[in-house]
Amino acid sequence: MGSTDSKLNFRKAVIQLTTKTQPVEATDDAFWDQFWADTATTVQDVFALVPAAEIRAVREESPSNLATLCYKAVEKLVQGAESGCPSEKEKQVILNCTCILTRILPYIFEDQDWRGFFWSTVPGAGRAGTDQLDEDDGARPLAESLLLAIADLLFCPDFTVHSHRRGPDSVESMQSIDSCEYIWESGVGFAQSPPLNYIHDLNRTELLRLLLTCFSEAMYLPPSTDNSILNPWVTFFCSTENRHALPLFTSLLNVVCAYDPVGYGIPYNHLLFSDYREQLVEQAVQILIVTLEHDGGVPHRPASPCSMEDQESAGPENLFVNYLSRIHREEDFDFVLKGLARLLTNPLTQTYLPNSTKKIQFHQELLVLFWKLCDFNKKFLFFVLKSSDVLDILVPILYYLNDARADQSRVGLMHIGVFILLLLSGERNFGVRLNKPYSIHVPMDIPVFTGTHADLLIVVFHKIITTGHQRLQPLYDCLLTIVVNVSPYLKSLSMVAANKLLHLLEAFSTSWFLFSAAQNHHLVFFLLEAFNNIIQYQFDGNCNLVYAIIRKRNVFHQLANLSSDPASIQKALQRKKKTPDVISRTSSQETVSMEGSHPALPAEPGTLKASLVAIPGIDKLTEKSQVSEDGTMVSVPKTESSHAVQSDQSAAAGTSDTESNSGRDSEDVFYTEAEMERRRLSSASSASYWAPTPEWILSWKCKLPLQTIMRLLQVLVPQVEKICIDKGLTDESEILKFLQHGTLVGLLPVPHPILIRKYQANAGTAMWFRTYMWGVVYLRNVDPPIWYDTDVRLFEIQKM
């Protein structure tokens, strides 16, 4: 790569820059050319030869020199974009300038006084590609010139795309090129697959890395729920000002979805070509997830009267979002879904064919991309759920959730996986698809079972709740909401899954757990609601669950007779002190785990993690919809007092208003995890600490939806006991056979309407996604470490 000579020359130039106290003129080409003209440096070289301390020193002590360096580097890119870099030397200059800007930009962003620098106009600069008609002589802000030059360079023949020249003399003018003919990969809206060229892949990767660095200004602003604050870099790049927006969006999407880590060379040959393509795919998926943001992910709001001037629309239209939302051909959806499923499954195939294929590391970015596809393109979401292909996304997600459950550095991965399942579970088809038998056996650290994908989901959720780490508690509501959403459609749960659900009820309904936090009783309501849905709508195939309920009938009787007097409360809380664990890990008869699986492990000491903001409570994350007779959904209006909804019918039905006083109403307040931890500790010691009272217990105990189950027990328990006495039975298969042919028609209360809690976007989730996504981008870019040790504000980087 970089020869020793060129490294020395480059280092010499850097030292001169840091030691010069006088401003160097922009016209002094002999000086500035040392940085890019005669050197061939890799991006790793640039990071090694330009230490952070020196960049900061120039910024503080000779700011005009830093400004000129940036300006000159951008000018070189603009010139290259105009000329099309015909010579090797010009191509090298472009790559050198790209690496230098990637190195310097984070230090521009971390300093508030510098942040506006790229958005100021430099006299006479950056006239590239604009007709000189602009009122101020076509001067563009440096940021715009830089972004347009990068876009042009990404479609530069013989540099980043294949040349279409007919003969040696014909020239492709950069100004007239139709970049739609140069899309990088076949797939959505483009049929030809250009031949692989690893040099082009390398050059694209460098330019995309710089683009990502431009967009990363977002990391240097503290978290805020004001979604009208748009990222100016993304806004401009994804606007009509960028004539390559469509072909570039298509190229990025196709490169990601067409990538097959196995297909790039026979197995075990994954160390050659595919490395360049894999790096390109990683940069492409990261660019996609950070550009696909419209108004912070919240639907357009009408402008308030006070802001009359921006009445045209709530913020400019992001073309990437626009194009994504307009994809509609079945074959395009199929290409995208199959591509994402193939990549998400890749780390799983590793487990049973070790080292046979490249193990990709960008599954978190893929999950965010899948999320954005579903969020921005409802037709895609319905396509995903139309066939059992959705299970090819579900299985890897469950694998990641199970694998990451003990690792606190992967708590963000746990959240995105659960959010996707929550979104999918709001659609009836998802519940129906879960009935497909689960036959592929990915080695997972869960009990062996024979059953459906619904069983797999329940077994994994049980494992997360009973053996995951404490930080996952805020997700319990989401996990059980997913179970409730799919429950009316589950035709036949296995005995293993039925026992797991009852074990959760047993754990959540102990008095010490119920009395130890203001929201814990919601978990019991969710489980009862799921049981009621199955009994009322799917009784016939669910003899395993009915049998499990009969065996554990004492749990339901204890709930109905829960004591609420002060003495019982005290006694329960004393017991909590003795067993501080969230959920008794005993009474679940743990069976043997699947063969070939590894236990879920905590993070290695020293692992870096990015902090996250808190997620909104489940009542803010979802809105209720009622399923009508014909299967269509009607949203249930939110009432002022949630208790008014509690008519006797809904209490009997089991559509408990679990959200009544969710205790998380401090609407959009964001704390980092560290801050939440501090608040928890300080509130635990302060006098204002929440404590359960008899009135509080009675306020929800009377709403426990136990009627359906009590009626079931009343009818079936005597019959089952009679069989056991008559036949001297200890064999459960006879009892199951009896239950299988039994019926409760006419004996149960009138079936309640099915209630689904559908995910809804809001300022809180938009903020969560923004911090999570940028945290992933920060931690995944370690070679070179673009943002390492700079003063990011969007999250904190913590060592485990």
Offer a quick outline of the entry.
The protein is mostly helical and about 800 residues long. The chain has helices at about 5-20, 30, 45-50, 50-60, 65-85, 90-110, 140-155, 200-215, 230-235, 245-260, 275-290, 320-325, 330-350, 365-375, 380-385, 390-405, 410-425, 430-435, 455-465, 475-485, 495-510, 510-515, 520-540, 545-550, 555-560, 565-580, 620, 650-655, 675-685, 695-700, 705-725, 730-740, 765-780; strands at about 610, 620-625, 635, 755-760, 795-800. A hairpin with a 5-residue loop joins strand 2 and strand 3.
Main sheet properties: 3 strands, antiparallel
**Overall 3D form:** elongated
Q: Strand share of the residues? A: under 5%
**What is the number of E strands?**
5
**Number of helical runs?**
33
Arrangement of strands in the largest sheet: 3-2-4
| N-to-C CA distance | 36 Å
The SS-based structural class is mainly alpha
Mean pLDDT: 84
- Contiguous low-pLDDT stretches (5 residues minimum) are 124-137, 296-316, 584-589, 640-672, 682-687
Compute the gyration radius: what is it? Answer: 30 Å
In helices, the fraction of residues equals 40-55%
Pfam families: Hid1
Region (Disordered): 574-604, 626-667
Biased composition (Polar residues): 584-594, 638-661
Protein name: Protein HID1
